[in-house]
Amino acid sequence: DAGVIQSPRHEVTEMGQEVTLRCKPISGHDYLFWYRQTMMRGLELLIYFNNNVPIDDSGMPEDRFSAKMPNASFSTLKIQPSEPRDSAVYFCASSFPRESYEQYFGPGTRLTVT
Amino acid sequence: AQKITQTQPGMFVQEKEAVTLDCTYDTSDPSYGLFWYKQPSSGEMIFLIYQGSYDQQNATEGRYSLNFQKARKSANLVISASQLGDSAMYFCAMRERNTGGFKTIFGAGTRLFVKA
Hints:
The complex is a heterodimer.
Chain A: E1 5-7, E2 10-13, E3 19-24, E4 31-38, E5 42-50, E6 53-56, E7 65-71, E8 74-79, E9 88-95, E10 104-105, E11 109-113
Parallel strand pairs in A: 2-11
Antiparallel strand pairs in A: 1-3, 3-8, 4-5, 4-9, 5-6, 7-8, 9-10, 9-11
Chain B: E1 3-5, E2 10-14, E3 19-21, E4 24-26, E5 32-39, E6 46-52, E7 60-61, E8 64-69, E9 74-79, E10 88-98, E11 101-106, E12 110-115
Parallel strand pairs in B: 2-12
Antiparallel strand pairs in B: 1-4, 3-9, 5-6, 5-10, 7-8, 8-9, 10-11, 10-12
């Protein structure tokens, strides 16, 4: 298996622009997670899906952030409009649906908003 | 609310020595999983070891072992015979049942420096 795939790996955009991050989970994994990592706040869970359904989006910072999972093999995290404080590394992870299963992380997308 | 605490922002260890990275957690759920991940400077997140809340024995994976003290709600990672390649950020995480699914949260991390 190719593992969790994220694109793009790096994104540089100007404040106010829309940003879309993409993720392809490992085939067969029912859970998909989006995390944001910054020096100040560490690794924050933004939202997670179970069988394509959003379960907990309490970590989404504000309405500028939205996430979708239209099918089992694809998810997007969108920021509109983007702001400089959104600059971070965004990780997607997937796993099987039990507390005993580890999460497999993608390589991350490094977002820079200028 | 669940919580993971890693009190050591940074740790130094001499090559070939053992080191313990601390992690405490807080949960009211009797069933949960505890994990450690390594993040080297390249940025990827690498799973190291898992401990289930009902496991009677401490988990071990090669040079990694997890010192699980349930009553104290601690899950410390022990790395034996440290290597230069162990220099990285280490995260403790807990996964427990959440409405509709299983939620995982991470601690703030401990940066480990291995000295030659």
